[in-house]
Design goal:
The complex is a heterodimer of chains A (163) and B (109).
Chain A lengths: L1 H17 L6 E7 L2 H17 L4 H22 L7 E9 L2 E8 L30 H8 L1 E8 L2 E9 L3
Antiparallel strand pairs in A: 1-2, 2-3, 3-5, 4-5
Helix pairs in contact in A: 2-3, 3-4
Chain B lengths: L2 E5 L3 E6 L3 E2 L4 H11 L6 E5 L5 E2 L1 H13 L5 E5 L3 H9 L7 E3 L2 H6 L1
Parallel strand pairs in B: 2-4, 3-5, 4-6, 6-7
Antiparallel strand pairs in B: 1-2
Helix pairs in contact in B: 1-2
C-alpha cells in the first residue's frame, strides 16, 4: 500500500515525461532522389525519437513516408536531379500532421490511388514485384488527401499518437 | 550493399549486413543477390536479422530474387524484425515465403 502511494506520482511523472511535447515542428527540403529520401527519413525519425514520440508511431511514420516520398521521386519527378520535395511535420491535437509538396507532375486523375493490394496467386512466377505503396499508405495513415495548387502537388496525412 | 554468404551441407545462407533494403539500394540488392545465388544448393535462406527497414521497393526486390531462382530452388527468409515483419504481413507477402524466426530455426528445420 505504501509502495503504491509512493509509486503513483512517479508513474504519472514518468508518463508525462514520455509524452511527446506539443511543439513538434520539423521541416526539410530534399532533392528528388532515393538516397535523399533516405537521408530525410533518417533526420525525421531522429527528431521524433528525440521528442519522445513512441517507437510504434515512428515505425508507422517511416513506412508511410517512405512510400509517399518514393512515389514522388519515381512518378512525379521521375528521379530527375532538379526536382525538390518539401516535407513538414507538426504536432496537431492527438496526432502528427504531415505535408509533402513537390514541383513534379500532377497525380494522374488528380486524386490519390485507391490502394488495392496486388493479388497473391499460387504461382511464384506471377507474384507481384511492386504496387503495394498506396495500399500501405491507406492502411497506416489517417485522412490522406491530395490537391494541386500553384503548379505543385500537396499531399497531407495524419498519424495518430496514443492518448 | 554488404551481403555475405556461406554454404552449409544443404543450404546457401545469404546474410544482409545492412540496416535497410529500400528504394535507394533495391536494384543493387537484386544484382548482388543474383550473383550470390547463381550456384549452390536448392535451399536458399535470406537472413534479414540485421535489417530494420524494408519499403515496397525493397520488398519487390526480395520477391524478384525469389522469382529468379530456377525451380526447384526456393528462397526462405529468417530473422524478420518488427517493421520488416509488419510490411510482409500488411502486403500478405508473409503467405508467399517460408519464414523462420531466426537463422538457427531455419537451419534446424
Amino acid at each position: 500500500m505504501i509502495a503504491r502511494q509512493r509509486g503513483a506520482p512517479d508513474v504519472r511523472q514518468a508518463r508525462q515525461a514520455m509524452r511527446p511535447p506539443p511543439q513538434i515542428r520539423f521541416h526539410i527540403t530534399m532533392a528528388g532522389q532515393a538516397h535523399h529520401v533516405r537521408g530525410a527519413l533518417s533526420a525525421l525519425t531522429c527528431h521524433l525519437r528525440g521528442q519522445n514520440v513512441p517507437e510504434p508511431v515512428i515505425a508507422t511514420t517511416e513506412i508511410v513516408l517512405a512510400e509517399v516520398l518514393n512515389n514522388v521521386v519515381e512518378h512525379a519527378l521521375s528521379g530527375g536531379a532538379d526536382g525538390q520535395i518539401d516535407l513538414r511535420c507538426r504536432r496537431a491535437g492527438s496526432g502528427l500532421c504531415f505535408e509533402i509538396r513537390d514541383d513534379g507532375r500532377a497525380m494522374p486523375g488528380g486524386t490519390l490511388p485507391e490502394g488495392h493490394l496486388p493479388p497473391v496467386g499460387d504461382r511464384v512466377a506471377d507474384l507481384p514485384e511492386g504496387g503495394w505503396g498506396w495500399g500501405l499508405v491507406r492502411r497506416l495513415a489517417q485522412d490522406p488527401s491530395y490537391h494541386r495548387a500553384d503548379g505543385r502537388n500537396h499531399m497531407r496525412f495524419r498519424i495518430a499518437l496514443p492518448e | 550493399m554488404n551481403l555475405s554468404s556461406r554454404t552449409g551441407h544443404d543450404a546457401l545462407v545469404v546474410t544482409v549486413n545492412a540496416p535497410r533494403i529500400d528504394a535507394a539500394v533495391a536494384i543493387q540488392f537484386k544484382d548482388r543477390m543474383r550473383a550470390e545465388t547463381e550456384q549452390g544448393p536448392p535451399r536458399v535462406i535470406l537472413d534479414l536479422s540485421q535489417v530494420e527497414f524494408v519499403d515496397s521497393s525493397g520488398l519487390g526486390a526480395i520477391v524478384a530474387v525469389m522469382k529468379q531462382l530456377a525451380a526447384p530452388r526456393r528462397m526462405e527468409l529468417s530473422g524478420l524484425r518488427g517493421n520488416v515483419d509488419r510490411v510482409f504481413r500488411l502486403t500478405r507477402m508473409d503467405s508467399v515465403f517460408n519464414i523462420h524466426a531466426s537463422l538457427d530455426d531455419a537451419l534446424a528445420s
